[in-house]
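Protein in question quoted in full.
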Amino acid sequence: QVQLGESGGGLVQAGGSLRLSCAASGGTFSSYAMGWFRQAPGSEREFVALISGSGGNTDYADSVKGRFTISRDNAKNTVYLEMNSLRPEDTAVYYCAAVWSLVDTIVVETTLYDYWGQGTQVTVSS
């Protein structure tokens, strides 16, 4: 059983930056593909960024490419989301999620993720 806990959310002005962290426990962290997802009020949950178990493969939603960076430190069992040039439309609850993967690859399908954190609120003011 993997447990995930996000931190680092908050209120920031447009153009600002935040760094989210997601600490994992209860599994062999490097065996899990990880993802950051977000959900704004009245909207469906959407993927933001994905990373493979080794960290060697990543993918981003078009809306955040060039502004957000996902990374992981397997020694610390932590995945990060560095968010720069934030926009009001980035306002949402951000969740990290994990899925065990036999191969070192990203996992695109949201429904395959087995473990989810409780979420952290990110609010970007204009």
